[in-house]
Design a protein that fits this description.
- This protein is α/β, with parallel strands linked by helices.
- The protein has a single domain, classed as Aldolase class I (TIM Barrel).
- The chain is built from 18 helices and eleven strands.
- The radius of gyration is 21 Å and the shape is globular.
- The protein starts with 7 loop residues before the first helix and ends with a strand.
Amino acid sequence: MGRRAIDVLDICKELILNDDLEVKKKLGRKIFNIAYKKGIYPSSINQLYFSRGRGEIPPNFTVPAINLRTLTLDLARAIFRVAERNNAGAFIFEIARSEIGYTNQPPIEYSACILAAAIKEGYKGPVFIQGDHFQVNPKRFLENPDKEIEGLKTLITQAIEAGFYNIDIDSSTLVDLSKPNIKRQQYLNYDVCAGLTQFIRRIQPRGIEISVGGEIGEVGGKNSTAEELRAYMIGFRQRLRKGKTGISKISVQTGTTHGGVVLPDGSIAQVKIDFDTLRDLSRIAREEFGLAGCVQHGASTLPSEAFHKFVEVEAAEVHLATEFQNMVYENTHFPQELRTHMYDWIKLNLAAERKDSQTEEQFIYKTRKKALGPFKKEIMNIPQDIRDAIIAPIEEKFDFLFKQLNVVNTKELTDKYVSLKRVIKRPRHEKSDQTSQENFEGAD
């Protein structure tokens, strides 16, 4: 009798449960190789976005960018099933700098889970994996700007090596509203983003132009203005080295907060998005600067009836995260004993983060995302039939969102505008903290 073929899900589960990063990388490369053979390619959405900015594609759909903080493999499989049913190609998987830490999902693990899900569901074509909120820490930047930027460059390098060919740089944390004019307020923001964009262009794999996003307004702050967008883009283009491709989209603030505003009973307050601002800024981004449009963060906890508005105002992309985490935690099939254990861990280990004004419900809601990493293995070991029951209503929500955001029947569009390249990682002769374009080779 022949040996049983190893299922890609077995490889992926071993990768998730193994704590050795080098082992994760080795298993990840196995999954990548299988994916390429199956016609699945980690890709950049850049060409599609710039085509939209040139007016070749009508701005009548909004790309969902979905952060998966837990049950990544299962949820990614659900997303690919939804995509197949809806003939959708314009959707993004993403994870933020902070999420990589508190969910204990290094880039290679995250991307390998996404590709394993695509393999298992028979999906083919480009797969967009994105580094969300690769954010500059303002306190650390003030203390030692070179060290903070080097830390971001290291993260960017690791992400690109793991197939993240879409990266959102968030240097909006450096905006200084105390400065006397808007250009000076935005100076550090566009200066740092331009420098990191040039770094990305230097190390991106040959044949792949990574999609880079910028941001002018930190989520939870004041709403963005047309003057800020113009000041940022003009400054960014002046700072960017001549001949280098810049950003393809720009994130703005229109009234949302990451995770929503939590009321004392643990429920989420209704949020009013300034859709007029989102429409106006998206139009300026396209018509004056050739971008795909504007990006909306912190939207997953909005009421269901709001999502069709993103298409109406021609937003390019919307980021969705917290609601899916909530649906996992609050599902009646999620093991009660495990949830209690996780909440007890939060109360014991994160007590210092609790504000005097917070009820216990508010405290748990705001911090429970940080228990997902420490309990990743326990969650992964929930029996498959129970995980399937947890995933089912979230899959329905994904289907609803794909329809509301009008990404149904976008598969031909992505196949037309997105080039598929197989990236072969060459042996690295430099020190581990150095990189160059020669480390990667793109092949059709």
